[in-house]
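Single Protein Entry

Contents — chain, fold
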Amino acid sequence: MSLINKMLQDLDARRSEVAGNDALGMQIRAVPQRRGIHPAWWVCLALAIVSAGLAGWMLLRPAPVAATSPAVAGVPLRLDVRLEPPPADQAAAVPVRGAETPPSVPGASAASAPDAVVPVVQAPAPATPAPAVAPRAAPPEPARPLPIEPVVEPRNPTVSQSPQSVAAPWAEQTGAAPVATGAKQVKELTPPQRAENEYRKALGLLQQGKGTDAAIMLEQSLNLDPHHVGARQALISILLDAARRDEALRLAREGLARDPSQAGLAMIAARIQVERGELQPAVETLEHSLSHASEQPDYLAFLAALQQRAERHKQAVELYVKALQRSPQNGIWWMGMAISLQADQRKAEAAEAFRRAKASGALSPELQAFVDGRLAQLR
């Protein structure tokens, strides 16, 4: 078109040479030069924009998932899959863009999510240089595989260990040696526990009337545990029934020597001593354990009666008063205190004590007659 315009301009310049009345010369004019853009350039511009957009999409599209692809360009892939989520500061760098993956990956899907997280693929660098792309953040370092520790099953002593290997540490901690019976372990009883078992067996024999066998079991119990009070008292009772008072007294004294707080043993020993005519030793036996039996009215009344026999009436009255404070309806104790009061020449108090004893209703006919006689003397 420009060539044609040039030619027409030359003709127009030579128009003056043509006759003015020439009709052909008047009709031929040069086309004026156009100042606008030709439409073809608009078409080219649109094609360029579309091509640039397509190229940009190809460069910035997400990386295809290579899970189903066996290899890239014939090179085997090595996958390091993260076993734990990436740190917060690397969360934005996890997605892998398409520029980092060779373009010729068979089976890749173009519809992948833009920011999908895919496993990090480490492959040898391609021979040809990668196209230049815009500067971007460096990809995160591949996570090291998490070491998997072997699972250690708990040791089961009853299955994987022998009873002897289990018994050693157990015996060191508890102080008692276990006895292995097959796969089970039976804890050996301590001497006090064995003594208690022997004592219970002896009580069963006593209920059956087998006193001799029961005495043997009780002796075995005391040999295992000399502090077993029940076994000692039961054996003393069997010995007293068999009129073996010396052996019974010996056992009672041995028990008191080990534990003076056993008031029951003190009363048994004092009673045996009284029967043997040993009044003062009996009083001493009871006084030795009095601090442990100051709240027991029977113990106090028994010692008061022995003091009365020993002509110690003031001490007897004091002990009777303490006993009657804890059991004021005992007529026998009122009568005993009245006797000591009368012996101490405290007649008015003695008469009142005799009346309290008679009013208790706990005296036998013989004792009531004795009280009446004493009241008559005091009148």
